[in-house]
Every structure is written in structure tokens, then in C-alpha cells.
Amino acid sequence: MKRINLTGRALSDVALTVFDQSPEAAQELAGKNAPYGLILTTETAYSDLDPELIEKADLIAIDFPAFGDGRGFSLAVRLRKDFNFTGELRATGPVIPDQAQFLLRAGFDSVDTDDARAAAFQKAAGRFTAFYQTDYTGNTSVAHTRHGPSQRERKAS
Amino acid sequence: MYAYDPYDKEIVNTRVEEFRDQVNRRLSGELTEEEFRPLRLMNGLYLQLHAYMLRVAIPYGTLSSVQMRRLALIARKYDKGYGHFTTRQNIQYNWPKLVDTPDILLDLADVEMHAIQTSGNCIRNVTTDQFSGATADEIADPRPYAELIRQWSTFHPEFSFLPRKFKIAITGAPSDRAAVKWHDIGLVVRKNDAGDIGFEVLVGGGMGRTPVIAKTIRDFIPEADLLGYLEAILRVYNEQGRRDNKYKARIKILVEALGSDTFADLVEKEWQTTRHHPIDVPEAEIKRIEAFFAPPPLEVLPEQDPAVDELAANNFLFHAFLKNNVRPHKVPGHVNVTISLKPHGGIPGDATDAQMDLVADLADTYSLGEIRVSHEQNLILPHVARRDLPELYEALSRSGLGTANVGLISDIIACPGLDYCALANARSIPIAQNLAKRFDDITRLQDIGELKVKISGCINSCGHHHAGHIGILGVDRKGEEVYQLLLGGSGAEDASKAQILGPGFDENGIVDAVETVVAVYLGERQDGEKFLETYRRIGADPFKEAVYEAH
Amino acid sequence: MAKKPVGPQMILANCLREGRALFFGRDGAWHAEPALADVAEGDGLDALMAKARAFADANNVIDPVFIPAEQKDDHYYPAHIKHVMQAKGPSVRPDLGYQVSPDWERR
Ligand code: SF4
């Protein structure tokens, strides 16, 4: 297993716990007063997430049961957009190299993949250089870049 | 027409190189078929019964003559000399080799075309009215918005792995020629009291096993908010659409399960939180795209032309062509000419490379180099001077493209069916051919009048049988091809679901049954009623009695 | 697990590079003509598939599958209309596909 760094940020090595929506579990994590990471599945409804628990996490891993389970992308966008999550976002599960740029642009920082695919991941992550959407890595949509430098500064979050 | 700028070019070219890399990795064995399949599908490359099939997008059904010639060249160079125009304003090639597909994509990119998102669980080619920008009855040309949506939806980081495919159609006219109510999202251009452009938004339409007509969730979304609102719909669908059962994964099932009001509330809430997010494109961008679709510089000409009238008086077929294939343009003295790809005995929607080249030449001579493709699988020359019609008709007829049957019973929509499609249960094309043979007399066709026959080779409904005035669905009964007959569907603004009449028929029986249905209509119709009007007035029973009594 | 197919079966696949439908032959190669196809039944199925699958593993063909076969004259042919179509080509284009000739593609 290899960890691919998509964004170049310093990656976290905190231990991960499976997200549990019960108040007790949240309290326990908060009470420990130590950095923590959470594992979310693509089944997780964003409305079940405790905003404080999310915001304070160092690392959140979204586990894809299948690479085609696109809920993981919307969940990532939610965490960045609605929960102001600024920690590391990691994709785990059978995601494929050809998704690298989608992951990156939806807000993921890192991916766990098997060694054989690491090179393909790295290559795919930098393939496109122009985008039709403003995204969570700071790329501005060409709809904006076409119309002047003042627009270029716009960021998604 | 829209022209790529360096950004568009870079994105499409990068895609070609990415796909070349993916094909090479597949050929070398680095990718297994299981891994490669979704990648090729995202690029419109299927594996069908006889060969691969490549589906190329014709965004909003608009082609230049240069692009049409390129489609002809691809048919010649990499395929078997023809292509198939589909019900979603795409063209399909039936025999490409995997090893050739990267070069085909490169040839396409060269004329600003692509096969991006013509398949897979993503936002597909946005379709629209084939007469956009050339018809008097529209509020605004919908194509700039379709282009805006094309760009926004291309390689969308969040919405490229949806529960299921996602189809958007948009119309600028109250007469719906794009079947918007049968789409996952239908957009209808509206003008509010202040004179501003916006859209009525419908969601949850679709065919397949569970036909549903889309419901309006917002009467008016202003132009500037369009993409933000679409994004909100897609986010709710991506999160909550079912993924456990592919037959229940389309947005129509989610909308039905939640109720359209609840769905609308969820969308509204999500949209409010993201409004004015950078998704909303600058006004200057809308203006930039609109400029490409500025009204064509046509001079106003007399509405009548003596040469046209004379030929019509003397040539019965030209008279029929004028009546059925020609409709007024928004500029006086001009017309939209529909070129029927339904010659009797031919394959609906197929065109040879020579025919494509000819249409390109005719477009240059008579239509400002512009061509349209309709969801009814015909080609259109949108900007023709009325006085040029005799010459144009002559040229079309000589090449087998002069069939004067547009909108009539032999202008049949048919999917490829079991002759090509790996998912098919039965053949569609031979049924269309036999029907055209049965109704081969243009006088009779015209007497029957507007009648839309739509044929699908399986429940996936690519042939839109649910929306046919007469719909035909092929099913597999223990290895035999059996055809169900449906009546009363509509894909227009008065959208309705066709209903199954009764037990199915074999290949010959279905043609007889259609003939009986037509006879009942002719016997029952009252002054000038169209088939659908008669059906709606008298209901299915008289048809049922006649069809099944005869058996 | 899928049920074991009943009755005589042949193996159909598509070639990777060109996509054409091909039958696994008695000579251990792939052919356009179903008359050359190897046919197995019951306990013989697994061995036949193992031979055919080697070609899929070697990346020559995609998705080899059993299809029901029926005997006509001296030979076996695909029983289902879909596979008959694959053996021949589109019924509406008699000028295309292997119905023209087994070496149609190369002519
Ligand atoms: S309706 Fe069925 S048979 Fe026809 S093209 Fe679609 S999937 Fe194939």
C-alpha cells in the first residue's frame, strides 16, 4: 500500500477511528484532547455529521466501497464547503488512478492505493491544466479566467 | 456557431492523449478489461454485438459543414462508410477498432468535436430543439445555455460518478421539439414580467422500465443562477440517488420517492447555501458564448416565390416535400429544411459518407454552412432561402435524401436493436422497414397525417417508444422476437406515456396491428383531428377491439 | 455463482483489438465461423473454458462466455438469435460482417 500525496501538504499520521454519530463517541474524542482522524463511509449522510467533530479533526478518510461510488466526491465537497474542514482529506478503497484529478479537485489531499498503481496516480494527478469548474484546489474555471485577472483570484471556499 | 478558444482546445486535446494512454495501457495488459470498461465507456466506446461502437457527441445538435465532412471522413477511413444518427443528437460508428479510436478522437478534436461523456454515469450530451436560433416561436436561442452546461458538466470533479447516466434537454420555444419532459432535467426558456430570461426547471423525467414525465420544481430560475441551481440538483441526486439497484438509480426514482415538492425543497435549500458561489459564471462569459450564436445575417426576402409555386403545382413529390419537410424560418423568405434519414426501405438515422459530404456541400451552398441533427434522427438545413428550394430538392432527391415524409407515419424513430446492440431483445430496424413498406404511398401518408412511430429493441427505450403516438417495444419470449404495441404517447409539450394495448405480436403481426390501428383512426377521426387527438378523445378501447378481434 | 449452462455450449468472445465476435475453435484458435467452434457439455465445460480463458488472460479476447449451441446437419450453430446475429452480422446489412465471408475483414 502506498500513500499518494496529491496536494503536497504535510500528511497527517494520526490514528483513525470509524466515525460514530452518537453524542458519547463525539464527547469521548473531544475529551481526549488529542489530535484525531475519522473514517467516513460513502453511506454517511452529511446531515448526521457533528460540525464540531468534523472541523476539529486532523484527518478524515473517506472510504470508497467501489470506485464508481460518487457519493465520496460530494461528501468531500460538503466537508470543505459546509463544514469548513481544513484538515487532510484522504481517499481509501478501490479508487483508480484515472480518478486522481477528480479526487484532487473535489478536495482530497491524499489517496491510499496499492504500490503498482502509485506511478499512474501521480501521472494522472497532473494531466489536465485547464478546468471548466472552479474547484477546491484553487483552480479557477476557465469561464472566469477568460474574463480578466481580477477574476483569477477567486477561490472556492 | 461556438468556436473553441485555447482553453477548450487544450481540454479536448488532453482528453485525447489521456485516452490514448488508457488504450495503450489496456493493450499492454496493464489495465484489465474490468478496469478499462468504465474508462472507455466514459469516452463513448461500447462493445456491441459485432464490434466496438463509438458514440460521438453533436452538442445541441449543431454541426458546421466542416464538421460534417469530418464525420464522413471518419466513416470512410475508420469505419464501413456510414454512421448512425441517434435520438440524443449523437452519431454512432458501428465498426471502429479499439486501436484506431485514439486517432479517431484526434481527427474529431481537430474540428472541435469529441466523444466526452457520451456514455457512463455522468452528465451526457445536452440536447435541444433542432430549429434553435432559426425558428420564430422561440423566446431565446437555447444553444448558448447548452454550451454553458456542456462546459460546466465536462469532467465535473463532483458529478462524474453519478448513480446513473444523466440527461439534460433544453428548449427555447414553448413548442417542445426536444422532449424535455422525458429528461432527467428539462429546461424551458422563459421570460419574466421584467423581460429577463430564465428557465422553468423540470426534473425526474425518463423512459426505461419506469417511464415518468418530469415535474416542474421551479417556475423561473434567472439566467445567472442556472449553473448554481443545476449544481444543487446534481448534488442532492449524487448523495441520495439509489446505488443499490441500477434499475432504480435514475433521478426519476428519487424524485418519485421523495415527492417532487420535498425534492424541490432540498434543492432550494442547497442552492441557497451555494448561491453566488464562483459556480455562477461572469455575465461577460454568457455574453461571450451568446455572441457565437448571433442571428445569422440573412436578408429579408419575399415570402412567395413563383418558381417554387410552379414546381409545387407540377411536381407532386416536391409539393409533399414543401408541405412536410419545410417550415418557416424566423427571417421572412427563409425556411428550415428537414432532410429525412428515413427513406422507405432504409435504416432510420443512417447516412453514408457520401450523403454526409453532400449535405455538407448543400449546407455551404444554401444554409450558411450550418447543419442540425434532430432527436428524430433527421438532418436539418436551418437557413435556406425559399427561392433555392427547387434546386436543393433536386440535389437531395438525386442522392436518396428527398423523402417527403417528415412527421408522417414512415418518419420512424428506431434504435439499432438486435442488429447491432448487445443489450437488445429484438430487432427494431426491420420493423421500421416493413412499416415503411406497408405505408409506401405518399398520398396515403399525407392523408393519415402527423403520426409518430417510435421503436425500441429493449426496455432501455433508446427508440423512445414510451413517447410514440404509436410505440413498439421488442421483447424476448423464449428466444423469439415479440413486439408490444403501445398507443397514445407524446414527447412534445403535451407529453404523455404510451399505454400497452394488449398481448404482443410477431414480426409480421405488429405491422398488421399498426395498420389496423391506423384504420380505426381514419374511421373515427373528426374534422382534421390528428391521430393523437382522436386517440385521446376515444381512448384505447376501439383500437383494442379492432386489433385483437382480427386475431 | 452462475448456474452451469445446460445442453451443448460453444464459447463466444470479442477480439480485444478489433472487437469482432469470434468462436473458440476445435483447433484451439478463434474463428469467425461457428461451424469450427468447439462444443462441450456438462463436465466438459470447465476444461473448454479454461482453454478459452487463457486467451483472455493473454489479452487477445474479451469476455469469453458460453452460448447455447444446437446441431444442424453436421455442425453446431449458435441457438439464440442474438448469437446468430453475432456470427453473421446485421440482418439489415447483408453486405457487412462475416455473413459476407469469414475473411470479410481482410478483403
Ligand atoms: S433500446 Fe435497447 S436495443 Fe435499442 S439501442 Fe437502446 S439498449 Fe439497444
UniProtKB/TrEMBL annotation, chain A:
<dbReference type="Pfam" id="PF06073">
    <property type="entry name" value="DUF934"/>
</dbReference>
<dbReference type="InterPro" id="IPR008318">
    <property type="entry name" value="UCP030820"/>
</dbReference>
<protein>
    <recommendedName>
        <fullName>DUF934 domain-containing protein</fullName>
    </recommendedName>
</protein>
UniProtKB/TrEMBL annotation, chain B:
<dbReference type="GO" id="GO:0000103">
    <property type="term" value="P:sulfate assimilation"/>
</dbReference>
<dbReference type="GO" id="GO:0009337">
    <property type="term" value="C:sulfite reductase complex (NADPH)"/>
</dbReference>
<dbReference type="Pfam" id="PF01077">
    <property type="entry name" value="NIR_SIR"/>
</dbReference>
<feature type="domain" description="Nitrite/sulphite reductase 4Fe-4S">
    <location>
        <begin position="119"/>
        <end position="272"/>
    </location>
</feature>
<keyword id="KW-0411">Iron-sulfur</keyword>
<dbReference type="GO" id="GO:0016002">
    <property type="term" value="F:sulfite reductase activity"/>
</dbReference>
<dbReference type="GO" id="GO:0020037">
    <property type="term" value="F:heme binding"/>
</dbReference>
<keyword id="KW-0004">4Fe-4S</keyword>
<keyword id="KW-0479">Metal-binding</keyword>
<feature type="domain" description="Nitrite/Sulfite reductase ferredoxin-like">
    <location>
        <begin position="347"/>
        <end position="396"/>
    </location>
</feature>
<dbReference type="InterPro" id="IPR045169">
    <property type="entry name" value="NO2/SO3_Rdtase_4Fe4S_prot"/>
</dbReference>
<dbReference type="InterPro" id="IPR006067">
    <property type="entry name" value="NO2/SO3_Rdtase_4Fe4S_dom"/>
</dbReference>
<dbReference type="GO" id="GO:0046872">
    <property type="term" value="F:metal ion binding"/>
</dbReference>
<dbReference type="GO" id="GO:0051539">
    <property type="term" value="F:4 iron, 4 sulfur cluster binding"/>
</dbReference>
<keyword id="KW-0560">Oxidoreductase</keyword>
From TrEMBL, chain C:
<protein>
    <recommendedName>
        <fullName>DUF2849 domain-containing protein</fullName>
    </recommendedName>
</protein>
<dbReference type="Pfam" id="PF11011">
    <property type="entry name" value="DUF2849"/>
</dbReference>
<dbReference type="InterPro" id="IPR021270">
    <property type="entry name" value="DUF2849"/>
</dbReference>
